Amino acid sequence: ERLTGMEETIDAASSNTEILSIPDPATLASVLTEGVKNTIGDSRVKVTYEPEYVPAVPPAMPDIPPEQLAAMIKATVKAEVLDGNIAYLKIQHIIGEEMAQKVGPLLLEYIWDKVLPTSAMVLDFRSAISGELSGIPYIVSYYTDPEPLIHIDSVYDRPSDITTELWSMPTLLGKRYGTSKPLFVLTSKNTRGVAEDVAYCLKNLKRATIIGENTAGGTVKTNKIKVGDTDFYVSVPVAKSINPITGKSWEVHGVAPDVEVAAEDALDIAVAIIKLHTELPGLVQAAATLVEDNYAFPSIGADLADKLQAAVASGEYNLISTKDELKAKLS
């Protein structure tokens, strides 16, 4: 449906003598890329000229000594506990289920056990540009309940014409972070691919607040296809993610943040919001007590106090990010 009018455009381009007279292959590839982008409105589709290109073959999972695995983990994931008992995880690559199973004990020892006891968590995806599709339910599940299982994403693969549903996982290595503690995801214009999918899932499950910039609008899968017997290649997204909650995809347009700020300020804003959240129980309790003690209809005041406390306990206030929002919510 996105290719409507493409054949006519190709026919028109084929008769364009200016294009046919371009002597430099790389320049021709750039012109063709712009033509494709303008026709189908998708900046992810690219034409390149690569005479030295060799298709990459995914390596088999090697047997790596534990100490090397630990070094790899520390190089790709930064974990620390900030002031205020706030967990901070900076993730640059989202590993798949196979790697997670292999390095699971080390992940628990060096990262998860360190941040699990915290009262709030920040996932930093501002530099996350790669990842494995199977890692999406693996990460999301740590911030959901084991039951009921949640349909978090569907991925349609066009070459195989198969749609794969991704669901939350009933069992995990280690304990879950749970659903009640505040969770924030930091994004930038460079956040791409699988990390965008994780952020979009957590946002629409209303489990996380996204802080930062609109993400890149990448894809879950791209194929680089050789054009006939030439050194030209076309990079094409061949799969698309469809969120079961929104019925839409984050691809092309990216994930819009809940709180839009410059990427470099995102962590400071997240910490400020978390500090506001630490004051929430006391503020809500004070408001509830004032109403309960002073409202003209005592039974209604007591009922309101109970409902306010229940709302805080259930995490209903976890997505509050400013004092104005808190004021409106309490009202």
Report what the structure shows:
Pfam families: Peptidase_S41 (PF03572), Peptidase_S41_N (PF11918). It comes from Sinibotia superciliaris (golden Chinese loach). Helices cover 39% and strands 19% of the residues. The chain has helices spanning 6-14, 17-20, 25-40, 66-76, 97-115, 135-141, 194-204, 266-294, 298-313, 323-330; strands spanning 46-49, 77-82, 86-91, 93-94, 120-124, 130-131, 151-157, 162-167, 183-187, 209-212, 222-226, 232-237, 239-242, 259-260. With 331 residues, it is an alpha/beta fold. Helix 4 packs across helix 5, helix 6 packs parallel to helix 7 (194-204) and helix 8 runs antiparallel to helix 9. The chain contains 10 helices and 14 strands.
Would you kindly provide a brief summary of this structure?
The chain has 331 residues and is of the alpha/beta class. It has helices at residues 6-14, 17-20, 25-40, 66-76, 97-115, 135-141, 194-204, 266-294, 298-313, 323-330, and strands spanning 46-49, 77-82, 86-91, 93-94, 120-124, 130-131, 151-157, 162-167, 183-187, 209-212, 222-226, 232-237, 239-242, 259-260.
